[in-house]
Amino acid sequence: MAFNIPETGQERIVIVGAGFAGLKLARSLVRSSYQVVLIDRNNYHQFQPLFYQVAMAGLEPSSISFPLRKIFQRASNVLIRYAEIEKIDLEHKKIYADLGYLNYDKLVLCTGATTNFFGNKAFEELTLPMKSISEALGLRNAILTDYERALSIRDFDERQELIDIVVVGGGATGVEVAGALAEMKKYILPKDYRELPYGEVDIYLIHAGSQLLPGMSDKASTNSLRYLKELGVQVILNKRVQSFDGDFVYTNDGDKIRCGKVIWAAGIICPVLEGVIDTQLGRGKRIKVDRYLRVPEQQDVFVLGDAAIVEGDPKYPDGHPQVAQTAIQMAKNLASNLKQKNPEHWRVFTYRDLGSMATIGRNRAVVDLPNFKFKGFFAWIVWLLVHLYSLLGVRNKVIVFLNWIWNYFTYDQSLRLIIRASKEPKKPK
Ligand SMILES: Cc1cc2nc3c(=O)[nH]c(=O)nc-3n(C[C@H](O)[C@H](O)[C@H](O)COP(=O)(O)OP(=O)(O)OC[C@H]3O[C@@H](n4cnc5c(N)ncnc54)[C@H](O)[C@@H]3O)c2cc1C
After folding, report:
1. Which of 162, 286, 375, 403 is the S-S candidate for 309 at Cβ 3.0 to 4.6 Å?
2. Where are the domains of the chain?
3. Quick check: 379 and 367 in contact, CB under 8 A?
4. Which residues, judged by CB distance below 6 Å to any ligand atom, belong to the binding site of ligand 1?
5. CATH 3.50.50.60 assigned to 12-113+270-345
6. Whole-prediction pTM value?
7. Does the structural domain 121-266 have CATH classification 3.50.50.100?
């Protein structure tokens, strides 16, 4: 058993994934009677809502990530393993990774979701997703590298291909990225790349639906569209991106846009671990759970966050929204149930909608609270405060806050470095 986890006689809970759900659960079980093993393919927790600011060189990756070992330095009952889980054996209660296998008494899957390319290999290979810190950095490098290259290109069409950007998907991620790109064009390009005719830079946002920000109110959708237009983003609604060959984006109505860089924010799907069977999966390959977040017929296996679809909640027949609050609330619910050893006293999971928001450049945001919807500068301040509050670690909060203040007054961040790893460490045998 290569994980080298000591047998202490305590009941062992193995949590796979240290995102919002897994981390909250592990933290809630510190000093409980359980031995908790928290496993993630990264040795840090990442704050996904601010990925786009890393991609736009507004923040450093370390300001929105937090090392897992630091969080649990004083938690003697929590052990961390840096590993990618590949397979589950539900019958023998084992999980497998390249490190070997590990037995569990209770298993909690918090593996989140990944980018959905809808089975299209070209989209997967040629577009730029933003579902991890490394992808956000990859995007940053791609944008900056293309601006650098474009400076040496005389041919208009060739230059266009390097500097124009298409964002696919008008959900919160697509809208926020498009807004940030438009601000980069307005404030950064004229200073850093002053030889580039910045009027030539086109930013497109293509969305298959008729309204941006599906899931938010009509008001939020209309206002976000207006804000993006004010920033010069070319918003194309009711069109689907059919294909991309690295030079042109083709839409379903036969139109094409010359562009070498496509940011893919068109949807998510859950990765399926070997050992999970098809009948256990629901929409978006989320694992079906009952209202105690338990996999039916697997009393010791639970699923939380983006990876779970709760069956039997009449208010959310299609599952709860795949957002951070759902993950956190599910983790709280399961932690309190697990501490209450008698399942007869367990509480069913009930989602409390705390609202949703999106920001579109500086001073502009839309906020939908359950009973109150607003926009503009006040909404933007609320967005900033909520994200600052939700970040892990005082150092990160201070650094992000200072970065934002600096950026607000100078319109100029100094993080636009193209840094690539030259050599990857060897994988363990
Ligand atoms: C760009 C972006 C912006 C977003 N903005 C917002 C926002 O503004 N507000 C909001 O509420 N939500 C937002 N979301 C959604 C929100 O981040 C997710 O709903 C939330 O992260 C789900 O939490 P989770 O714990 O289920 O999964 P995640 O937070 O995704 O965590 C999953 C963890 O599992 C690990 N993992 C996965 N598979 C394995 C494996 N096989 N072995 C080991 N480890 C594994 C991953 O490394 C990761 O750490 C955004 C998402 C993205 C991508």
Report:
1. 286
2. 12-113+270-345, 121-266
3. yes
4. 16-22, 39-42, 48-49, 51, 84-85, 110-112, 130-131, 172-173, 305-307, 322-325, 327
5. yes
6. 0.94
7. yes
